[in-house]
Amino acid sequence: MSFSGRRVSILRPSDSRRFSTNKELSENEKNSETHRDFRAAHEGHRPHAGLDASRASTGVIWCTERANEHGFQDDPSSWANLGQGAPEVDDEIEGSFHRPTTIPIESAAREYGPTAGIKSLRAAVARLYNEHYRKGKESQYTWENVCIVPGGRAGLIRIAAILGNSYLSFPIPDYTAYSEMLSLFKNFSPIPIPLAEEDHYHIHPDKIAEEIARGTSVILTSNPRNPTGHVVSNPELARIQDICRGRATLILDEFYGGYNYATGCDGTTISGAENVVDVDKDDVLLIDGLTKRFRLPGWRIAWVVGPKEFINALASAGSYLDGGANVPFQEAAVPMLEPSLVRAEMKALQVHFRKKRDYVLSRLHEIGFRIKDVPQATFYIWLDLTSLEPPLPPEANISDGLNFFNALLKEKTIVVPGIFFDLNPAKRRDLFDSPCHHFVRLSYGPKMDVLKRGLDGIERVVRRARGENVGPTLEDEVAIED
To answer: How many domains does the chain have?
Structure first.
């Protein structure tokens, strides 16, 4: 992938600071029933005593709630859920090790566990990072550099709770759950860094330097990046870490580090741990876990790797925020983290998911979408709905994410509207000003048969919008049968 080298600054005129060149929402789109319902839900309702009704669901949860209104919860197996960011979990990937089907529970595991996690798992995580990213380096991680947390969100919440008064910058678009986390705590002020679509949503090191120069002391981003599938790799990632060293805390959400297709699917994974000079002095916090890389989202076992002082503070925060991760699952995770086993697992993962990525891209191209950038990581596609060729007639009204999402519900298919990735803590911007409206995020995490059903649904929606006769929607067919 080549980049223009163009620098993007939020200090430039408005057209330069947007991360999309798409047109604004038309009045017709703004006044659609889908948009009115969305806005009403996110502006809150008459509260009960003590209830802050302005708290909104994360994007995936909101989408699932809407799908439930169309029967998703009653029969999820008949739906194609391309919305939830979850990988397939069955033991059917060639070369992948089988997950435990039973977990022994010793009497000691019935007790409260340490809020930083059990020592054996913390040591296993440290060993994995040293083996994969720090061979030959003088400074090595130990178990004291690892905090086990009950899921990635819990890790992020703990981190947010221990930050001092600061400006926290975050590139957008990015992971939807950041938005609520960034609005919960008042010890920092969140500042967005809009990235440009024409610049491939690239995070330039000079942009990070500019943020730090104006007072930012904490930077948060996913890498590989959710939802675009882009990745900041070395030497640019090392340059960013050099810029932050001694000046800003860098928080890297690396949950998709295993889904790396840029190195020939050889099992190589991505982590800022490779560029850390001193594990106890570099203010770099790395978040990962079993959820994505090991395809165990239900276990809720994740970790934060960083300097000991941070880890001690995170352990203390766990005592009053979440109480710590499940002990039996922590014990079961230890043998999974043997470095050579993980390398083989990542190779199998990458080969399998790259095939699914290529299938989805091929189908989308056949339908008429033109994808500018092939994602080099994650299992997401950031789909520009205005890229259809030939363009849809104006009256089709599915060129924005919310109406496209709504049309797909009738075909028993779920995607996530792009608006959710335009993080907007404290609702400081009007949602209709977002340039993400004409995007959706598609997940190719599910199994191939689910992907096929979902893409069939997308094809029917597009063909129907073109005026072709494709018969009744799946929802209508069920109603006729009833």
So the answer is: 2
Tens digit of each residue's pLDDT (9 = 90 or more) over 369-417 = 999 889 999 999 999 999 999 999 888 889 999 999 999 999 999 999 9
What does the pLDDT read at residue 187? Answer: 92
Q: List the domain range (segments joined by +) for residue 397.
A: 54-90+345-479
Query: Of 317, 337, 357, which residue sits at a domain end?
Result: 337
Task: Give yes or no: residues 76 and 121 share one domain.
Answer: no
In whole angstroms, what is the distance from residue 223 CA to residue 284 CA?
A: 13
Instruction: Examine the domain organization and report whether 331 and 243 are in the same domain.
Output: yes
Q: Do 286 and 302 share a domain, yes or no?
A: yes
Say whether both 333 and 297 belong to one domain. Answer: yes
Q: Give the Cα-Cα-Cα angle 268, 274, 279 (nearest 5 degrees).
A: 140
* Length in residues, the chain: 482
* Tokens found for residue 432: 């209709």
407: which 2 tokens?
Answer: 């049309």
Note the pLDDT tens digit of each residue in 411-466: 999 999 999 999 888 677 776 778 899 999 999 999 999 999 999 999 999 999 99
Domain stops at, among 289, 312, 337 = 337
